[in-house]
Amino acid sequence: MPTYLIQSEKMSSLGQLVAGVAHEINNPVSFIYGNISPADEYTKNLFSLLDLYQRHYPQSVKAIQEFADLIELDFLRSDLPKLFQSMMMGAERIREIVLSLRTFSRLDEAEMKRVDIHEGIDSTMMIIQSRLKGTDQRPKIEVIKEYGNLPLVEYYAGQLNQVFMNILVNAIDALEDSLVISRWTTKKRLKTDNPRIYIRTQLLTPNQVTIGIADNGLGIPEDAKKQLFDPFFTTKPVGQGTGMGLAISHQIITERHGGSLECISQPGVGTEFIICIPLIQQRQISNP
Ligand SMILES: Nc1ncnc2c1ncn2[C@@H]1O[C@H](COP(=O)(O)OP(=O)(O)OP(=O)(O)O)[C@@H](O)[C@H]1O
Ligand SMILES: [Mg+2]
Q: Which of 23, 59, 160, 220 has the smallest CB count inside 10 Å?
């Protein structure tokens, strides 16, 4: 059985799981998201009522005054809108993540379809966002996007997203390895040499799209470069890498999309993977 078939089986059950979870989260988040604005509105009204009381009954009794001091009424009043605002931001963020999970899994779009490549890359980035964050030991990984003006491309969205994911995760792994040999300790790094990932897209010829994903990690030695796309080739410790990521990506791009996947790398400088896919798939040209 070809590897990409096994992989597409795995992807479709992963896709189903992801889409299922996203769907389940969507409902409760909608409750929160939908209720914050009215809750904010209601409290504003209650405060206005309080103002009215204060204006018409300025001599309040001692117990009321004491309780107002106890709950720090003035502070509460200035803080509450901020609380609502940060709840709103949190809920919006969850909604964005749920949307990305849905775009990523594309359960409803297992067929070849015209899709926005940038949307696919962005939703994949969103999923691996947490691995870009800086820590005490290393600066954050900067992502520099140069998106060209692309038309919608015919492709298997879920599978292509899987390719973006494999290549991006490899780039992050490579940048983290560079860290191990202390290229980017927070103390002695040069400002111009932060860990970076570059993503550029371009319309190459009237019917060819290229997507380049580059990193300024340690690069790939010449002898390893020859085996990159071989199944089970990995330089990662046992249990960490299966060595299947690039083999599968290569199959998805070449066999399923009629494109090409190439690697350019200079040891010590960085690595770039270049995906080329035709705008209109061969399959459709031959079967009008
Ligand atoms: N951006 C990169 N920089 C340096 N080396 C890379 C890069 N991308 C891939 N490699 C090398 O290619 C090897 C194969 O990559 P591949 O994605 O196929 O497998 P893997 O990452 O080791 O395991 P997994 O199956 O989990 O993806 C990696 O082990 C690594 O040595
Ligand atoms: Mg990999």
A: 59
Distance (Å, whole) CA 188 – CA 143 = 21
Does residue 246 have its Cβ closer than 6 Å to ligand 1? yes
| CB-ligand 1 contact for 124 (6 Å cutoff) | no
pTM assigned to the model:
0.74
Instruction: Output the six-digit token pair for 107.
Output: 């359960």
Residue 285 confidence class, pLDDT cut points 50, 70, 90: very low
Instruction: Identify the domain boundary among 81, 103, 125.
Output: 103
What total of structural domains would you count in the chain?
Answer: 2
For residue range 113-138, list pLDDT tens digits in order: 788 999 999 999 988 988 999 888 78
DSSP 155-201: E-HHHHHHHHHHHHHHHHHHHHHHHHTTSS-TTT--TT---EEEEEE
